[in-house]
Design brief:
Shape: rod-shaped
Order of helices and strands: HHHHHHHEEH
Helix content: over 70%
Number of helices: 8
């Protein structure tokens, strides 16, 4: 199947455009994943800050418990209650993060919440009975729960750091993938460009160079040379065929013009010859007619000679008239085999040359 040059260019453009759009879609999708991952990382960093605030609250609660053990007053108790409320608000903010869907994060945070609730419950159960609040066993239980809270925070921070590392790994992988896509598109585009350059060179530039050579040959008057193009596109072949047809028409026009000029020159020469020859012929013919009339009756031999002269004059006059009526030049070969050069005996056939051309 012969595909035209225009369609080849169109198909190449569609292919490059399709691959470019496909690469852009991959990049957009990966960029969206990177954006989501980056938001998750920022969210985790925010959660780590929230955890640090929680730890500050826990340390403050620990100080208030120790302070309340030495001095049980309402101000310390109210401050402890406000601190627990602040902790609960931080827990509420923490639960609205996207990573809350992770089971390990949720279990670790629930353990922290349960341990914190146990500390608050035990504190509230003994806060109003100061003599029981100060017992070593009670404080040991409180300190154990607080230690468990600190361990729970360390475990939660470790889990969040692991998630952050995994997210960073995903970002790095996606970035490398996008780099690979960009490099692939760059090399593919370069490859297609090289193929197009080679294709254009073979399909257009080479035939056009041959066409240029043909134009120069026509300018030099060489109309018989043909442009040989083994392989070319349909549009280029049509152009070359149109050019060769133009060359044939120009050759025909040139030949006709040359023939016209030759005939014009022959007619001018024939007119001059007729003018120059007819004048003396008229004198010869008149003299011969006079001699035949005056002395022909007395001398038959003279009469025959005068009649022969008159006939030849009429023959010459007929030839000069035919010369002025020449429409084409037709040659008859009268050359002898012993002639030194071919065509030495070629003569113009005046009779046939004076006839009208057959269309």
């Amino acid at each position: 199947m012969n595909i035209s040059f225009t369609n080849k260019i169109l198909f190449s453009f569609i292919l490059v455009t399709f691959l470019g759009i496909l690469g852009n879609l991959f990049v957009i999708i990966k960029f969206g994943n990177i954006e989501l991952t980056t938001k998750s990382i920022l969210e985790i960093q925010t959660a780590l800050f929230t955890i640090s605030e929680m730890k500050k609250n826990i340390r403050l609660e620990e100080k208030l418990i120790n302070y309340y053990k030495g001095k049980a007053d309402t101000v310390t108790y109210n401050r402890f209650v406000r601190t627990t409320h602040s902790f609960n608000r931080l827990v509420k903010d923490f639960r609205f993060k996207t990573f809350w869907a992770d089971n390990n994060i949720r279990r670790a945070m629930n353990r922290i919440i349960n341990n914190h609730n146990d500390v608050i419950s035990k504190f509230n159960s003994r806060a109003l009975r100061a003599k029981y609040f100060k017992t070593p066993m009670f404080m040991k239980v409180i300190n154990r729960k607080l230690g468990t809270l600190h361990k729970g925070f360390s475990n939660l921070i470790s889990l969040l750091n692991n998630i952050t590392e995994n997210k960073l790994t995903e970002v790095d992988r996606a970035t490398r993938f996008m780099d690979s896509i960009v490099i692939f598109l760059l090399f593919f585009t370069s490859f297609v460009s090289i193929i197009l350059c080679v294709f254009i060179t073979k399909s257009i530039l080479v035939p056009f160079r041959k066409l240029l050579v043909g134009i120069r040959l026509i300018g030099e008057g060489q109309f018989d040379d043909t442009i040989d193009v083994a392989r070319a596109d349909e549009e280029v072949l049509e152009l070359i065929e149109a050019f060769q047809e133009m060359a044939r028409q120009l050759k025909k026009y040139r030949d006709n013009l040359i023939e016209t000029e030759r005939l014009k020159a022959v007619n001018m020469l024939a007119t001059s010859v007729s003018h120059e020859v007819n004048n003396p012929l008229m004198i010869i013919s008149g003299t011969a007619e006079y001699m035949r009339t005056i002395k022909g009756d007395k001398d038959n031999e003279l009469k025959e000679k005068m009649e022969a002269i008159i006939d030849e004059v009429q023959r010459i006059s007929s030839i000069t008239k035919k010369l002025s009526r020449i429409k084409q030049i037709i040659l008859d070969d009268y050359s002898l085999k012993s002639s030194a050069q071919p065509g030495d005996g070629s003569l113009v056939n005046i009779e046939d040359s004076a006839k009208e051309k057959k269309k």
